[in-house]
Every structure is written in C-alpha cells, then in structure tokens.
Write a structure and sequence with these properties.
The chain is an alpha+beta fold and 291 residues long. It contains 5 helices and 12 strands. 23% of the residues lie in helices and 30% in strands.
Amino acid sequence: MAKLGEGDARWIVSERDDGRNVNHWHWAERDVTGWAKGRLTALLRGLEVRSADGTARCWTTEVESLEGDATLYNRKGTLKTIHDFRVTVKWLGQVDGTADEIKGTAQFDLYDDSPEVVFHCEDFSDAALKCKGLWKDAGQAVFGSPSATFVRELTAGADLAEGMEVTAPSATTSAGINKQPQSDSADVCVSKPPDSVVSNIEEKPTTTSLQQQDTSKPTGVVTRDIAIVDEFYASPMDLYQALMDPQRVSGYTQRSAQISDKVGGSFSIRDGRITGTNIALSPGEKIVQKW
C-alpha cells in the first residue's frame, strides 16, 4: 500500500471540477415513458385479421388505455431497458350477412416481446363468436409483431440515448439477456447448456429430473421433459382447496378464476390467460389437469 500522497496518479479518483459523469461510469437513467406510449399507440392501431373464406374480418381502432412506464438506464457505457405496460386496445369486426359491427377489446401485459393477449366481445352472437375465434387463432401473432418491434426499438435506444454517452448500446432486454452475438474477445453467454451439464443433472438424484429428448430423428426442435416435485407445509385438503377453490385462486392471483370441480370440467385462471381441463380429481389426494 502506497503512503499518503505517494499513490500512482493513474489510479487516484478525484472530483471533477465540472461535475461531469464521464462515459456514465456511474448509474444514469432517463424516463422514456412518453416516447414508449406514443410508439405503442402507433404500432397497435390498424392491426387486422381475416377469415380464410373472406367472410369475416377484425381490426384494431385505438388504444383505450396504456398504463405503465419505460426507462433507459446506462452503467459503464452499456444501455439497457426496463419497461412494463398494461394495454387495452379496442377492435371492431364485420361478418358478412350482419349489419352491425362487432365490438371488443384486447388486453395484455407488455414486459417482453411476446405478450399473452386476451380477447373480449361485448355480445355473444354467432358473429361475435366468429370474430373472437379469429382473434384467438391469429391474434397472438398479429399483436406479437408490433410488440417485438417496440421492444427492439426501445432496446436499441433509438435516438433517446443521445446525451447519455453510450459507447456501445447492447441488445439487452429488460430481463438482461443479450440477444446479439458479441465479438470473439468478449464473453459470450450460450443459451444451450453444454452436454456435460445436462448429463450431470440427469445423474444427480434431486427432486427435479431433467430428461433430454431423443434427437436421433430430425424433429426441427429439441425439447426436454421437466418433472418438478415440491413440498408444501399444509394439509393435503388445504392444498387441494387452494388450487381448486376459484375464490381462493382469485384472492392470491388478484385475477378472475373459474374452476370446475368435475372430472372433464374446464378451468380458467388469471383472467383467462391460463385455461385447461380436469383429467383426474381426488379431493385431498390428487389433481391432474391438462393446460
């Protein structure tokens, strides 16, 4: 350790007279909520779906509500984003043979580039159900494209990073995952684990088993089966009711829930974001559901 006053000048940190945060080595951030809301409003207007036979079509008309915020932040010259929005979009539909337009809304939470959209109609006529069916079949992709565009533009910083002294904007989502390949000299985060890691997980006895699918036949996609075993400090019946009682589920999710207590019955939780069917039920013993 150097004596007081004898340190290497290259490593001495002192206050700058101009108070400047050079290269934003220290944390710097900018609220870009205004830009984000304006861009989302423009991207979500005029989206359209049509039936294969051309007898029905639906299109978005306006953003009814847009709640949330977006922030660019910079640390050590690296630009990243945080954003979280709850969006409600109005849409209209027209079916041949009906005079009235069908009205409805699409709702989703936007915190990544692939939101789960829930569609609603104002009535339950055959024409309305046909329009809702169009949205359910193609709506996720239709809304996914502008959502991905928004996230990509926000992540890149657009012209909003001007003045933040960003040396190299990184394509990083709000979750902090790099999406663009880096140079050879940089550390690269590989999304697929090495085979040795997978084999270690398979051989080690744990409460979570990870089995790699047989990829000897070309399937186009490599998938894995995951089985998870958890312990809950509750009686079997309390746990059963916590998962099957719609009032309790609505209470701890803060979303509407409809759950049948019959085998073969359907369930819908989190405002319809998760749906499925009961395969086998045994109160206090077993719940088997298809999601």
